[in-house]
Design a protein that fits this description.
1 helix
Length: 64
Amino acid sequence: MKELAFTIEPDKNGGYVAKSRLENGTIITQGDTFEELKAMIADAIDGYYFDNPAEKPQSIQLKY
């Protein structure tokens, strides 16, 4: 996978929520600030189970 896109939405309680739909699931994470959200996205990708390490995205696209 070359690129993974996340849709960013404001959270009703403040902060941001990021979602990315994959063939075999969805990655969802949140952060109180945009900087924290970016760190949480990186952490979520690292923790997501990819069958093959080559499937791990090489770039991330954020759509607000």
